[in-house]
């Protein structure tokens, strides 16, 4: 029995509780132990401490999680598991919270297994909320060679290129939060990376500034970004050797596995927070896939792997 060890009202420990019968849970007909706290008289059950507390459709959780990490849209998932799409929308937020905590544990486990992280690749993925006129940038850091995601941020940026004028006319001036978000992300990375870590990035002008600020001892190499694209796959390069393969391939994976990031899709992000939730669930599912493959075996020689993928 996995019961938490504190009374939800007075925080009394297990010793102060007595068994108080069972009830049959309506959702899955499971027999659930009830408890009574002798200190304060509060009644609760084994289910009280579970993350699924008060859920009515527990059975859908694993499928929902897998669906969000496997390019299904919310309506597809709803149809697949037989619930209303609003239930799925709520479960996205719920699952993301669990996934976020799990992703942190995964990074810790990775460091425990492989030692301090030596090299990190860093780049921005661009998507949008509601319309192409409202772009979002998603700075992400991944472990060089392993593609383990270490963290990401989401920031609004003004539309650029030929959409810039149209966007300003339709929606007014759009705030640029990319620098503040990138700054927060790199600061957060100081918690998990050694100070002499190496960064590999493309030529973005803000990267050296933000890396110098939080990692003054880090080695930072800039590689030419060759984002010449295969149709519909901006991140999947056709160059023979890509020094930023890890991060670019992560972006390509996200484009393929997170439905709202697909290059051509009816599904778009309406709220940046939900995009963050979705990415967190994707990282959770993706980390499990890395673990199944066992990253030690799977770690590729960059050149060979790249050549194999691109032909
Ligand atoms: Zn109590």
Q: What does this molecule look like?
A:
The structure is a single chain. This protein is an alpha+beta fold and 311 residues long. The protein has two domains: 1-54; 103-310, no CATH class. The protein is built from ten helices and nine strands. The protein has helices at 61-68, 74-81, 85-114, 164-171, 178-189, 206-214, 245-257, 272-293, 295-298, 302-310, and strands at residues 17-24, 31-37, 43-45, 119-128, 135-143, 149-152, 155-156, 198-201, 219-222. Strands 4, 5, 6, 7, 8 and 9 form a six-stranded mixed sheet that branches. Strands 1-2-3 form a three-stranded antiparallel sheet, with no helix packed on it. Helix 6 (206-214) links the parallel strand 8 and strand 9 (219-222). Helix 1 (61-68) packs across helix 3. The chain starts with 16 loop residues before the first strand and ends with a helix. Zinc ion (ZN) binds next to loops.
């Amino acid at each position: 029995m996995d019961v938490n060890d504190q009374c939800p009202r007075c925080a009394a420990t297990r010793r102060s509780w007595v068994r108080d019968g069972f009830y049959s849970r309506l959702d899955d007909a499971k027999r659930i132990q009830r408890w009574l706290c002798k200190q304060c008289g509060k009644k609760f059950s084994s289910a009280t401490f579970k993350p699924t507390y008060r859920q009515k459709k527990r059975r859908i959780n694993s499928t929902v999680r897998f669906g969000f990490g496997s390019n299904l849209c919310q309506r597809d998932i709803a149809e697949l598991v037989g619930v209303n799409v609003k239930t799925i929308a709520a479960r996205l937020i719920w699952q993301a919270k669990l996934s976020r905590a799990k992703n942190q544990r995964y990074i810790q486990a990775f460091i425990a297994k492989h030692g301090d992280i030596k090299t990190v690749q860093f780049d921005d993925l661009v998507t949008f909320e509601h319309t192409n006129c409202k772009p979002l940038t998603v700075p992400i850091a991944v472990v060089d060679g392993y593609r383990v995601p270490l963290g990401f941020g989401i920031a609004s940026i003004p539309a650029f290129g030929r959409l810039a004028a149209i966007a300003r006319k339709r929606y007014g001036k759009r705030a640029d939060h990319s620098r503040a978000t990138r700054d927060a992300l790199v600061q957060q990375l100081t918690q998990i990376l050694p100070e002499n870590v190496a960064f590999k990035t493309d030529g973005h002008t803000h990267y050296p500034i933000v890396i110098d600020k939080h990692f003054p001892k880090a080695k930072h190499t800039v590689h030419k970004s060759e984002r010449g694209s295969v149709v519909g796959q901006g991140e999947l390069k056709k160059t023979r050797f890509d020094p930023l393969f890890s991060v670019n391939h992560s972006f390509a994976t996200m484009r393929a596995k997170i439905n709202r990031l697909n290059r051509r899709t009816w599904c778009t992000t309406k709220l940046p927070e939900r995009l963050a939730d979705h990415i967190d669930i994707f990282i959770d599912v993706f980390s499990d896939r890395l673990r199944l493959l066992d990253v030690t075996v799977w770690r590729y020689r960059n050149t060979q792997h790249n050549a194999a993928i691109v032909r």
